[in-house]
Structure formats: C-alpha cells, structure tokens
Amino acid sequence: MAPRRLIHLLLIIVGLTLGGLSEAREIIRSPRGFQRDLRRMANVPKVSSLTDLLDKGGRFTKGLLPKGGAPWRFYKEGERPFAVDLGNGCRVEGKAYRINLPMMNTTKLTDLKLVNGTRSRSLMPTGKTPILLEYDTAFYYDRGRVSWHGPESRFAILSLFHELGHVKDLSSMPENQQAEFRKIYDLKTEGKALTDGQKRKMVGYERSAWAHALKQARQLRREGFDILGNTPRKAIFNTINGCLKNYYDYSGK
User: Fold this and answer.
1) Residue 231 and residue 191: Cα distance in Å, rounded?
2) Which pairing describes strands 145-148 and 131-133: parallel, antiparallel, or unpaired?
3) Of 51, 65, 135, 194, which cross-links 199 as Cys (Cβ 3.0–4.6 Å)?
4) CA distances from 111 to 6, 81, 92, 151, 175 (A)
5) SS3 letters for 78-114?
6) Which of 192, 107, 179 is nearest to 143 (CA)?
7) pTM for the complete prediction?
8) Dihedral through CA 63, CA 68, CA 70, CA 71, nearest 10?
9) What is the mean pLDDT of the chain?
C-alpha cells in the first residue's frame, strides 16, 4: 500500500476511534457541566413524586381518558385492548394482559403504537425488553425490563421514551459500563451515598435518556404523531427539570 494511502487510512481509523470515544464520554456529565447544572437547577421546584407532578394537572401532565371501556389499569385476566385519544386525530393504542407470579402482580404489554388515520407507528422496544404496566406512577428501567404506568398523560408517554432511552444507551455500553450503571442505580435505590463521579454519571444517564425522549417525540411529530400537543417548550423543560432535580440533589438517605 502506498504511504499516502496508508496515512489516509490511519487518519480515518483514528477519527472513528476518537468519534466513538467522544460519543461515549458525552453521556457522562463533566465536573464543570455538573456545577453549571447545579446553578441552573437551584430555583427549580423539586418534584417529591411523580404522583405529585401528575396531580398538578398542567397541560403537559393532565390526565388522558381512554375512549370506550375501562382504563387499561382495571383490566383483569386475558389480553385486552385499550386506546387513549391525544387529540388532532392521534391516539395511543395497545393490548395488554395480566400476569400473576409469586411476588409479581402486574400487566404486560403485547402491543403499543401511535395511530393517526391509516398510519401507525409501533412504540414497542426491539429485542427482548418487555414493557410492564404497573399500578402506581413509577417509570423505570431495571435489568432488562421497562416498568411504566401507562398512557395517563402526555408526560407519561414521553417518560416511556425516556426509559427506552436508557435501553438504547445500555445496549451501546460494554459490559463493565453496564455493571457500573446498575451499581449506581442500585446504590440510589438503597438510599446510599454516591461518589461525585458516580453522581455525575447518574445525572449524565438521566440527561441522555431525556434527550432521547425529546428527539423521539420531535421525530414522531414530523411524521404526524403528536404527543406533545400545544405544550409550551418552557412547560416541557420545567417538567423534565423537576424530575432531574431529584438526581442533582441526591445525597443519600
């Protein structure tokens, strides 16, 4: 191979490597960025729980009522369909069935999609990751499953995209980084303190997942599936920041 072509090939390889490293690093919040975020978050109202957030009834968190029949959460045994109207001809449709196992009593989605006229777009994750419908207002990704409380509000649907963002991020991580991810969230669940580095990583994971959610929502809007409605940009980010503040303020129990 000619020296010039060899040098060109090496530059391409280096560029791709650095690009990959850059993409991996951007999930983790830098110390300077973290401090800047803390200043921005100082006056953001902290959301004590998602129930509290949904009960405020803002345009972004206001509950949505299913059309026809009982809400999905009241379905018993057997696969049942549900539909939630988002307005402007757009709706969420799905099917779910109850699963009763020891220490587990929940509902599993078998189908979830956005529909507008004759067009539809599946919201189910690829691979083996299931979506489980819980009976509280918890949204979380944990060890290969997404728990979600259903299409109760526009924010709830965006939150599903947030959890699927975690799935996407994890799928691109090597095993050691996946282990670190789970360790950090396990420590938080147990109420234990995190190191500064772990806290910045956790915040970075959350920011990345919300970025994925917004990107997905905007792409769907361009395709004619509108989950954001006429919600002002400020209301969307105030809601997201209210959730993020719990991570920025976390110091253990």
Assistant:
1) 34
2) parallel
3) 194
4) 51, 9, 10, 13, 30
5) CCEEEEEEEECCEEEEEEEEEEEECCEEEEEEEEEEE
6) 179
7) 0.82
8) -30
9) 79
